[in-house]
Amino acid sequence: MTKQKIIIDTDPGVDDAIAIMLLAKTESIDIQAITTVAGNSSIQNTTANAEYLKDLLSLNCPIYSGATESLTGPFIEGQVHGVTGLTGITHSFQGNLTNNAAEKIIEIVNTFPNEITVLCLGPQTNLAQAIQKDPTLPSKIKQIVIMGGAIQSPGNKSWVAEFNIFLDPEAAANVFNTPTPKVLVPLEICYKTPLFVTDLKQMTDDSKLKPILTSLVMPYIKLLSQFEGVDGAIIYDALAAYYLVNPASFTTKELEIKIETKGEFTRGMSVADLRTWGEKNPNTTVATALNRDLFIQDLLSSLSK
Ligand code: RIB
Ligand code: CA
């Protein structure tokens, strides 16, 4: 079987962690590298959390740390993943900051031209910096799969903006302006696909990850309810990861998307042309639906391995 070579760009993050677990357990996926970015927590914490996950999942891919702030200034920090970014879990990994994520994305894509999928699970600063440093990169990336944006949904970080894009709108605009095939997994389908603690009963009792998932999900549900008013664990990044595992299970639509970088009230908004008339210049495959029960069953079956 030809494996799908991927780079996971991430700010672990409870849902990032579940995404990485799924990909680690999927035979058809070849993780070339994990690149970290600040967002859900500091770069120190997100990188340390990535090291914890690499050890937990016996991954042999390298971890390269990246952006500590957005293209235009400091990041605001996330709240729903706890202070360390992995609420509910304590570990002793410290985070080795190599600060070379952009350079390594360039190196890996140039080593495997037209073979690499970049999975963006945090602010897209690392990928944007890579593209700024090597403008030929977009023509050599196979596809970019992004968890982010809100097309038919209010934002989760402002009235209209989703967290990953809100943290670095300029980076997202740079990425969306490339000709590289892009897939967007936006807020609306994530909200329709919550994970509940009761779902974890589907996991076999001898599953190594079951107690860890339970420790992660329970406090995450409480924080999401407090800060985002939602019910259940919205495992945003796991849906984006699942697109790499089972793309046929998603309903999608081709849309043209622009990222607002100037609006006083709309900065970070993913603006889509939803008109049913006029000239169309779609630049993104947008996921519009996913069968929740199938996804959760598939996810937990994989994590039970
Ligand atoms: O808006 C949800 C996104 O922001 C997810 O990637 C979550 O991990 C946070 O990074
Ligand atoms: Ca994330």
UniProtKB/TrEMBL annotation:
The source's domain of life comes to Bacteria
Q: Does the keyword Plastid apply?
A: no
- Is Hydrolase one of the keywords UniProt gives this record? yes
GO process terms (BP)? purine nucleoside catabolic process
Q: Which GO terms describe its molecular function?
A: purine nucleosidase activity; uridine nucleosidase activity
Q: Name one GO cellular component term.
A: cytosol
Please provide an example of a Pfam family that matches this protein in its UniProt record.
Answer: IU_nuc_hydro
Which UniProt keyword terms apply here? Glycosidase, Hydrolase
Q: Which segments constitute the Inosine/uridine-preferring nucleoside hydrolase domain?
A: 6-296
Gene3D superfamilies, A to Z = Ribonucleoside hydrolase-like
Q: What is this protein called?
A: Inosine/uridine-preferring nucleoside hydrolase domain-containing protein
Identify the species of origin. Candidatus Collierbacteria bacterium RIFOXYD1_FULL_40_9
